[in-house]
């Protein structure tokens, strides 16, 4: 496994395991614990959560597994996100779908995540999405309180544009260490809208959600997906690799922005495939061929 340094005292595994669908995997706490052990054996140490995942339940599911072997906490890096609210059975007091970036909510959500995950501290807390009417002073105050209390080590954002990132950083004392954004061979926006250029300029490494475009890459009816898959498999012949997911992840990993893909599968074999992607490197020529296949027309 490769690791990427985000700060002097924090590194992420290049492959990150996400737990967005943990509630759908139908695992017992013991089965989840076994999965965690398997991830750690592969060198995958960074685990991505969010308060709202699974109707606000998945952090609790993970925490029940971690409680079976508390010694594993020191071997992992726990990331969570806050700010997205929607009606759910777990928290019936939430009546509508909205964003809450208030001081009170951020502190409450971070403390709830710590309790649900059954850990004493989050390694990283991200604002899941910036509310159009967010008060950056409240976000900064929440970050400061959580940091001073030792409840959160580092902070970052998710789904932020470069302008929004810079705006928030101007208020926050702590460096924002990452931006979790959608990046995949089928979603090229970050390569073209300045998002990755900004992060390269600031020497900040991005986390990539939905790196396989939610399965679209394997959809035999998706025109864009078919074009990308054809090109990836053609390049794969020169690398003795015919696993499409491995090639797609290798393409992302080959970008100089040090993209860190977040996996969404609870299938350990698919995770092992993802780890194999680190063994493959795309040349710039090969990388551009996939980019062209995705956008559907040649570069200038």
TrEMBL record:
Signal sequence bounds: none
InterPro entries, A to Z: AKR_Detox_Biosynth, NAD(P)_OxRdtase_dom_sf, NADP_OxRdtase_dom
Residue span, NADP-dependent oxidoreductase domain: 14-287
Protein name: Aldo/keto reductase
Origin species: Mannheimia cairinae
Lineage of the organism: Bacteria, Pseudomonadati, Pseudomonadota, Gammaproteobacteria, Pasteurellales
């Amino acid at each position: 496994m490769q690791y990427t340094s985000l700060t002097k005292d924090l590194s992420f595994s290049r492959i990150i395991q996400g737990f967005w669908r943990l509630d759908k995997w139908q695992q017992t706490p013991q089965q989840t614990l076994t999965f965690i052990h398997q991830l750690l054996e592969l060198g995958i140490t960074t685990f991505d959560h969010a308060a709202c995942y699974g109707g606000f339940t998945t952090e609790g599911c993970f925490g029940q597994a971690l409680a079976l072997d508390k010694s594993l906490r020191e071997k992992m890096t726990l990331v969570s996100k806050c700010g997205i609210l929607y009606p759910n059975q777990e928290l019936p007091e939430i009546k509508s779908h909205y964003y809450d970036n208030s001081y009170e909510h951020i502190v409450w959500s971070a403390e709830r995540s710590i309790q649900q995950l059954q850990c004493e501290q989050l390694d990283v807390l991200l604002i899941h999405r910036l509310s159009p009417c967010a008060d950056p002073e409240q976000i900064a105050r929440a970050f400061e309180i959580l940091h001073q209390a030792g409840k959160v080590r580092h902070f970052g954002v998710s789904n932020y544009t470069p302008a929004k990132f810079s705006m928030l950083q101007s208020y926050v004392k702590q460096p924002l260490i990452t931006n979790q954004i959608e990046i995949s061979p089928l979603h090229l926006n970050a390569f073209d809208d300045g998002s990755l250029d900004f992060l390269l300029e600031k020497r900040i490494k991005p986390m990539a959600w939905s790196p396989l475009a939610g399965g679209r890459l394997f959809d035999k009816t998706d025109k864009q997906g078919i074009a990308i898959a054809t090109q990836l498999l053609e390049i794969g012949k020169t690398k003795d690799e015919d696993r499409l997911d491995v090639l797609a992840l290798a393409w992302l990993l080959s970008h100089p922005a040090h993209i860190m893909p977040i996996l969404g599968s609870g299938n350990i074999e698919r995770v092992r495939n993802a780890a194999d992607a680190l063994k493959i490197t795309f040349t710039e020529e090969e990388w551009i061929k996939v980019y062209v296949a995705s956008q559907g027309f040649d570069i200038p």
